[in-house]
């Protein structure tokens, strides 16, 4: 990098709009969305989609609810042309969906584009030319007037060709490409000139698309540019103002949102932000951002995983694990305090459908996107007891007493620390099994039988293995646990106190089993839990006592 003074780059000029209105506006309705996945997204792929892949993605876009879909650049290649013909021949364009085609302002390309539209009911013909000073100089070697005339010639030719498709309603869209980098007055001049040719009316509008072809500055400048244009275009009621942002500075979403506040009506973008360089605007994000504000985005992402599966397969692009809403890790907490808060948030969410979503760290209910809760909490050495308890509960159905969370949390944390790895839910369960269930030394219970003698007394008989030796024991108490405690006193386990006991059935798993949790206090004052599982509830509690005794001995 150049050391200061930096001469290689310069700041972009700010816009003089002291009475700008957009900062105090909010977004209160969904814009008209236009997917450009099949065009801008496609043109940025190393291996562009073939016809079958485009058909598959087109159907997904229709399913999401896009009413405007840029299907390609039909004059660019046989594949692009064939795809549009396929949409027509297989009658794949629903009546309420308008397809859009892009073309440069060049005669042979515009004519070819019209050929591709035969049989389409309604189409947006999108013409563009670069208008910014750099491209005027290095690409076109043309004056402003000559650049404006390219656009005018393109618009005239489109108008002239409209009668060749009498059954097709044609809407004109014009993009002063690189609007973001063009003098505002000059972009306006080109757009006004195209409007003069097309003569839009409030009943028959045309679309003026103002692309941030390359994102060059902060989103507020983009908003200023859009507000300035909306205020200055002469036929505001006859034109739809459209945004088309890219993401070179990583703020395409913000630029679009501020652009909507600045008065735009329409948004072009792609799923997961696929597109040239750093990508186009990610429509999933903007739409779901609206949804999280209680606004109907008019796009349905209730099966985001399915959308993503098709997207990744046909584009051969990956959705980044941290991509908002769609990424693998966006609903996952590894760290203890996040897990604790999420677990508590879930526990306190009212059950009724439509209850206000209030789970800490989660802006949206993953279920609204068809995503499950499985990966919300994942365990590594940054995790805490709450996360471990959550896994035990959600994955395996164990509602451990709160005081026990600490114990198991410590064991799992030590394992994660030692391995340096993530501990899968299976790993957490294995820890639980090893720590509580498979502890059969020095004491193990082989058989247990009890009988209630009267209201106050239960008698119990146990066959136990103690330090490898089998023993028959007998005890009495006011319940089975007390009888067992009395029985094991005979082999030296007398100096402990039963602090708590709880049990529940295990709904998950093939057999219907019960689990008991027993907390004991040993002679040194040390406390520890035990857990027992059995199909017989009474035996489950005895196993819980044995588990706690063995752990107390070990401690
Ligand atoms: C910002 C965007 O995303 S714009 C969309 C970009 N998408 C694509 O380019 C994908 C599809 N494009 C293609 O397949 C090809 O580029 C085609 C078929 C459109 C044109 O192919 P070719 O004519 O062989 O080549 P190429 O694109 O290099 O043409 C460049 C010429 O077009 C001119 N040109 C470029 N854009 C435009 C435009 N919008 N309007 C008029 N002329 C243009 C250039 O000035 C250049 O002119 P020159 O030959 O006099 O120097
Ligand atoms: C053709 C235009 C709209 C474009 O893709 C861009 O400027 O990025």
From TrEMBL:
<dbReference type="GO" id="GO:0003852">
    <property type="term" value="F:2-isopropylmalate synthase activity"/>
</dbReference>
<feature type="domain" description="Pyruvate carboxyltransferase">
    <location>
        <begin position="31"/>
        <end position="305"/>
    </location>
</feature>
<keyword id="KW-0460">Magnesium</keyword>
<dbReference type="InterPro" id="IPR054692">
    <property type="entry name" value="LeuA-like_post-cat"/>
</dbReference>
<feature type="binding site">
    <location>
        <position position="246"/>
    </location>
    <ligand>
        <name>Mg(2+)</name>
    </ligand>
</feature>
<dbReference type="Pfam" id="PF08502">
    <property type="entry name" value="LeuA_dimer"/>
</dbReference>
<dbReference type="GO" id="GO:0009098">
    <property type="term" value="P:L-leucine biosynthetic process"/>
</dbReference>
<dbReference type="InterPro" id="IPR000891">
    <property type="entry name" value="PYR_CT"/>
</dbReference>
<keyword id="KW-0963">Cytoplasm</keyword>
<keyword id="KW-0100">Branched-chain amino acid biosynthesis</keyword>
<feature type="region of interest" description="Regulatory domain">
    <location>
        <begin position="439"/>
        <end position="555"/>
    </location>
</feature>
<comment type="pathway">
    <text>Amino-acid biosynthesis; L-leucine biosynthesis; L-leucine from 3-methyl-2-oxobutanoate: step 1/4.</text>
</comment>
<dbReference type="InterPro" id="IPR036230">
    <property type="entry name" value="LeuA_allosteric_dom_sf"/>
</dbReference>
<feature type="binding site">
    <location>
        <position position="244"/>
    </location>
    <ligand>
        <name>Mg(2+)</name>
    </ligand>
</feature>
<dbReference type="InterPro" id="IPR002034">
    <property type="entry name" value="AIPM/Hcit_synth_CS"/>
</dbReference>
<keyword id="KW-0479">Metal-binding</keyword>
<keyword id="KW-0012">Acyltransferase</keyword>
<comment type="subunit">
    <text>Homodimer.</text>
</comment>
<feature type="binding site">
    <location>
        <position position="280"/>
    </location>
    <ligand>
        <name>Mg(2+)</name>
    </ligand>
</feature>
<dbReference type="GO" id="GO:0005737">
    <property type="term" value="C:cytoplasm"/>
</dbReference>
<dbReference type="InterPro" id="IPR013785">
    <property type="entry name" value="Aldolase_TIM"/>
</dbReference>
<dbReference type="Pfam" id="PF00682">
    <property type="entry name" value="HMGL-like"/>
</dbReference>
<dbReference type="InterPro" id="IPR039371">
    <property type="entry name" value="LeuA_N_DRE-TIM"/>
</dbReference>
<dbReference type="GO" id="GO:0000287">
    <property type="term" value="F:magnesium ion binding"/>
</dbReference>
<comment type="function">
    <text>Catalyzes the condensation of the acetyl group of acetyl-CoA with 3-methyl-2-oxobutanoate (2-ketoisovalerate) to form 3-carboxy-3-hydroxy-4-methylpentanoate (2-isopropylmalate).</text>
</comment>
<keyword id="KW-0432">Leucine biosynthesis</keyword>
<dbReference type="InterPro" id="IPR013709">
    <property type="entry name" value="2-isopropylmalate_synth_dimer"/>
</dbReference>
<protein>
    <recommendedName>
        <fullName>2-isopropylmalate synthase</fullName>
        <ecNumber>2.3.3.13</ecNumber>
    </recommendedName>
</protein>
<dbReference type="Pfam" id="PF22615">
    <property type="entry name" value="IPMS_D2"/>
</dbReference>
<feature type="binding site">
    <location>
        <position position="40"/>
    </location>
    <ligand>
        <name>Mg(2+)</name>
    </ligand>
</feature>
<dbReference type="InterPro" id="IPR005668">
    <property type="entry name" value="IPM_Synthase"/>
</dbReference>
<keyword id="KW-0808">Transferase</keyword>
<comment type="similarity">
    <text>Belongs to the alpha-IPM synthase/homocitrate synthase family. LeuA type 2 subfamily.</text>
</comment>
<keyword id="KW-0028">Amino-acid biosynthesis</keyword>
<dbReference type="GO" id="GO:0003985">
    <property type="term" value="F:acetyl-CoA C-acetyltransferase activity"/>
</dbReference>
């Amino acid at each position: 990098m150049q050391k200061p003074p930096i001469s290689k780059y310069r700041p972009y000029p700010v816009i003089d709009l002291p009475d700008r209105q957009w900062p105090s506006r909010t977004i209160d309705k969904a814009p008209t969305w236009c997917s450009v996945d099949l065009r801008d997204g496609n043109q940025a792929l190393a291996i562009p989609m073939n016809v079958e892949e485009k058909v598959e993605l087109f159907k997904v876009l229709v399913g999401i609810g896009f009413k405007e879909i840029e299907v390609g650049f039909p004059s660019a290649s046989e594949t692009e042309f064939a795809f549009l013909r396929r949409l027509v021949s297989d009658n794949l364009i629903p009546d309420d969906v308008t397809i859009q085609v892009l073309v440069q302002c060049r005669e042979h390309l515009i004519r070819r584009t019209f050929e591709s539209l035969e049989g389409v009911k309604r189409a947006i013909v999108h013409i563009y030319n670069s208008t910014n000073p750099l491209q005027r100089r290095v690409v076109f070697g043309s004056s402003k007037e000559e650049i404006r005339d390219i656009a005018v010639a393109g618009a005239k030719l489109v108008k002239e060709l409209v009668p060749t498709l009498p059954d097709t309603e044609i809407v004109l869209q014009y993009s002063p490409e690189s609007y973001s980098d063009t003098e505002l007055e000059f972009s306006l001049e080109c757009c006004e000139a195209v409007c003069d040719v097309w003569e839009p009316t409030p009943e028959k509008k045309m679309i003026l698309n103002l692309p941030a072809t390359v994102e060059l500055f902060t989103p507020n400048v983009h908003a200023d540019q859009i507000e300035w244009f909306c205020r200055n275009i002469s036929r505001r009621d006859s034109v739809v103002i459209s945004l088309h942002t890219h993401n070179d500075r990583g703020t395409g979403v913000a630029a679009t949102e501020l652009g909507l506040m600045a008065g735009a009506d329409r948004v072009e973008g792609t799923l997961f932000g696929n597109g040239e360089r750093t990508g186009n605007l990610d429509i999933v994000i903007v739409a779901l951002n609206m949804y999280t504000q209680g606004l109907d985005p008019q796009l349905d992402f209730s099966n985001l995983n399915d959308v993503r599966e098709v997207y990744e397969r046909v584009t051969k692009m990956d959705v980044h694990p941290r991509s908002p809403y769609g990424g693998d890790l966006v609903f996952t907490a590894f760290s203890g305090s996040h897990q604790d808060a999420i677990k508590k948030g879930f526990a306190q969410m009212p059950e009724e459908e439509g209850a206000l979503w209030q789970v800490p760290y989660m802006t949206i209910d993953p279920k609204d996107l068809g995503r499950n809760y499985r990966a919300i909490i994942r365990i590594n050495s940054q995790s805490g007891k709450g996360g471990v308890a959550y896994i035990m509960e959600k994955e395996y159905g164990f509602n451990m007493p709160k005081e026990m969370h600490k114990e198991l949390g410590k064991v799992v944390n030590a394992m994660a620390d030692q391995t340096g790895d993530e501990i899968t839910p299976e790993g957490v369960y294995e820890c639980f099994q090893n720590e509580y269930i498979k502890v059969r030394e020095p004491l193990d219970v082989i058989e247990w039988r009890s009988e209630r003698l009267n209201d106050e007394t239960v008698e119990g008989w146990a066959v136990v293995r103690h330090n490898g030796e089998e023993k028959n024991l007998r005890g009495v108490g006011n319940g089975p646990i007390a009888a067992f405690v009395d029985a094991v006193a005979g082999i030296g386990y007398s100096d402990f106190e039963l602090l708590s006991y709880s049990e529940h059935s295990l709904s998950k798993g093939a057999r219907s089993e019960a689990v008991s949790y027993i907390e004991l206090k040993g002679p040194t004052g040390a406390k520890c839990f035990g857990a027992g599982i059995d199909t017989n509830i009474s035996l489950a509690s005895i196993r819980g006592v044995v588990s706690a005794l063995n752990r107390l001995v070990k401690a």
